[in-house]
Specification:
This protein is mostly beta strands. Helices cover about 10% and strands about 35% of the residues. The longest helix has 11 residues.
Amino acid sequence: MNRKLSRREFLKMASVGLGALAFSPARLAAFSGGASGVSPYKLLDFEYLSSPKRLPQFPASEIIGRVVDTNIDLRSTPTNDPAQNNSISKLEADTLVEWGRQVVGSVVGGLSIQRYVETPQGFIYAPVVQPTRNIPNTPITEVPAGQPGFWAEVTVPYVELTHEGVVASPWLQDHIIYNFPPRLYYGQVVWMDQVRTSNGFVEYRWNEDVNGHGYGYGAYGEFFWADGAGFKVLTEEDVAPINPDVDPNDKRIEADLDYQTLSCYEGTSEVYFCRISSGLSNIIDPATGQINDKLATPVGNLLTHWKIVSLNMTAGTFQSGYSTPAVPWSTMISGEGVAIHGAFWHNSFGEKRSHGCINVTPEDAKWIFRWTTPHVSLAQSEQRVSLPDHGTIVLTTELKV
């Protein structure tokens, strides 16, 4: 019987022996989600990873909910009170549902978010359902003339990936170990460096290289192809600065870590507001048993010093490791690792849950990216500044009890 590794065990193993694993044919149990909301597991072999994949049929609703975790309850009423015994069924990760509306429920167990998503089949706790849309695109058939590639944004619930080359990233190794197919999700932004039509439809090649295009594992020879219909090809207009005539010194961001909110100000006028998920605090260190704030978001005046369209975030902490490619619209505000960025892997905005960053929706992250300084064009892909120069000031506040 195979024992499933914890993520911590996996990352430890990956660091000592699987840094650039060449994939050999092996049988994988891969998860296959469907538009029906039923998500059976199906035994697949290596040919699945390397075979071309068209976009699946998605639910016909304006907003499509994507379940972001496994073993999630679909309930007959919007509460997790065990006395109600209201679980209808369990939903697996990437199950897609018709998103009707959000309702205020009754959540017990120390969680502050009380929202549930109402679907035709029942209620799902909102923090584990990403709201997505199905906006297919007419793909381009070649890389724009004179360009090394192009940026593209996922505009459908998810896109199946076709692997090419070696298995180098902890992210892909993780998917193999957990028997889950690699996918890109609504709101992610990726660098495409090739286009092909040899399989009867247009495919783009995602290359997360080291030239400001994500700093991922493309340099090791790990690439992916995907159905071009799932991506909007971005233009400079999509990242044009917002309110560029305002004096940059009059722009500031205030993030309230107690209430988990973020506001953008021009002088005394609030011009944007959103909910956030900042870093966890008061966490017990399993090594020492002591409570600490290693994952907490820094408090004080923070300075924007690096902005990048899309970034691979792979790291380990005392609590757990993580490996996430194509994190969109990252605005770095402290050191090399604390950023305001889009999060597509949860919908817990309003509660702390990150490893120190300020998570916002991809839509909010894009607005903030365009509004803050320094401005970053698609041609640049990233911008860095060093003291005494800096971009927009971010003030984070928190009451220490």
